[in-house]
Design goal:
Helix content is 79%, strand content 1%. By secondary structure, it is mainly α. Helix 2 packs across helix 10.
Length: 429
């Protein structure tokens, strides 16, 4: 049996599916609890930085973090999805040699990309921040590949926790510097992040917490990794590059406010994603026609969970805004992001499923279309609403809805949200 490049014996597939169904409730609650820890620790660390770090330094740190995220795509050659897919194959389609080859090619490319983006952003290329980012790239790339392989095996515990561990270490570092009365710079924050990554890296090497590919030479085709890199870069441009885009023409104070608002607005969909990571193997074994009533029910439940979380987060940012240097602006941006990310809490299940079972070439074409629409939206919004680039997410909500419905119609034969609305209207009448 072959599903999106993953080979699996049918009998083993059925056994995994039944075992997965029995494990979903407990593992799902654990995933949601871990994501709660991640965001609580992340919010505490974020608010601590916003309260004690000068706005310009916090804005610069936010840019460095976004640069590191895009460099991570090259550092891993966009192979996280491939590692997850091939880990579930029988036998596994990825070996330790793939990790070594990927890092040997990806880390130099990622380092060059960091230097290029810093140059464009008019930030120093030679200096402590650059060296810290290169070190973080190396550690983070190794962690990413190992956790992706573990996800393919159905082990998502450390994957769901690692961001929380890093946020906890970051908060402790910021609190220590604040207690000593020291002025904090972006370099201080990057150094604390490097320590946090080393802690997570040590956890990744612990037996039972994460798994690595079995010994052997590389099995992944370089062509597949190249396509994976292209797709991952496009998805970064779509999901993570907004902060870099606004940093081109907005002051650093706005960049810091945007980062706070974006992380808060993204949180509900991340909660849903954390639960769905535990169902990776089930998604890998799902046929193209498997969008049944239970799947749609899960999407609806995810949406209502998102509504509840957004209500709580709105209270949090409203209360916290007066305490933060950029709080008022962050609150305004957050409210503009809500419709877009609320839609994502409904669509994320099918988006993850499609990413696991759709050929990489087709994924890349859809991602390219989404990126083109997002850039066009910025081109329209920026001149019409100077100083309000976050208004782009109103347009993004509409374009993402249309693309989601079209993709689902092509893949599964129906428009899910349109059908949901029609069913609700039919029941009401």
């Amino acid at each position: 049996m072959t599903t999106g490049g993953t080979r699996m014996n049918p009998l083993l597939h059925r056994a995994i599916g039944l075992a997965g169904m029995r494990a979903v409730p407990l593992r799902g609650l654990g995933a949601l609890a871990s994501r709660l820890y991640v965001y609580l620790s992340g919010f505490v660390a974020l608010f601590a930085m916003a309260a004690y770090v000068p706005p310009a330094e916090f804005g610069a740190y936010s840019i460095y973090q976004s640069v590191l995220e895009v460099a991570l795509v090259l550092g891993t050659l966009g192979s996280s999805l491939l590692f997850s897919r091939e880990a579930a194959a029988v036998p596994p389609g990825v070996r330790a040699g793939d990790v070594r080859r990927t890092l040997a090619i990806g880390l130099p490319l990622g380092t060059l990309l960091i230097a290029a983006i810093l140059q464009v952003q008019h930030l120093p290329v030679v200096g402590t921040p650059f060296l810290l980012m290169v070190a973080m790239l190396a550690v983070f790339s190794f962690i990413g590949l190992r956790l992706a392989y573990s996800r393919g095996l159905g082990h998502a515990g450390l994957l769901n926790l690692e961001a929380g561990i890093r946020a906890t270490v970051l908060f402790l570092g910021v609190a220590a510097l604040a207690a000593l009365g020291l002025e904090m710079s972006a370099s201080h924050l990057l150094l604390i992040n490097l320590v946090a990554l080393l802690v997570v890296g040590a956890a990744c090497l612990r037996r039972g917490w994460a798994a690595g590919p079995p010994p052997g030479p590389a099995l992944l085709a370089l062509g597949a990794q190249a396509r994976g890199t292209g797709y991952s870069l496009l998805m970064f441009l779509l999901r993570k590059s907004d902060l870099l885009i606004v940093a081109f023409f907005m002051p650093l104070g706005y960049v810091g406010a945007f980062k706070i608002a974006f992380l808060l607005a993204e949180a509900p969909s991340q909660f849903v994603q954390a639960f769905l990571y535990t169902r990776t193997r089930a998604m890998l074994g799902t046929e193209d026609g498997g969008a049944d009533a239970s799947t749609l029910r899960l999407a609806r439940q995810s949406f209502w969970l998102g509504c509840f979380l957004f209500a709580g987060l709105a209270v949090v940012i409203t209360v916290a805004a007066p305490l933060l240097k950029v709080g008022r602006e962050a609150l305004e941006i957050f409210l503009c992001l809500v419709p877009y990310f609320l839609l994502r809490t409904y669509t994320i299940h099918h988006e993850m499923q499609l990413s696991l079972v759709t050929p990489m070439g087709m994924l890349g074409r859809w991602a390219l279309l989404e990126v083109a629409l997002r850039l066009l939206s910025y081109a329209l919004v920026v001149p019409l609403f100077p100083g309000k680039p976050h208004y782009v997410f109103f347009l993004a909500c509409v374009t993402d809805f249309v693309l989601y419905e079209v993709r689902m119609r092509r893949q599964f034969g129906f428009y899910p949200i349109v059908r949901l609305v029609r069913g609700a209207c039919g029941s009401a009448s």
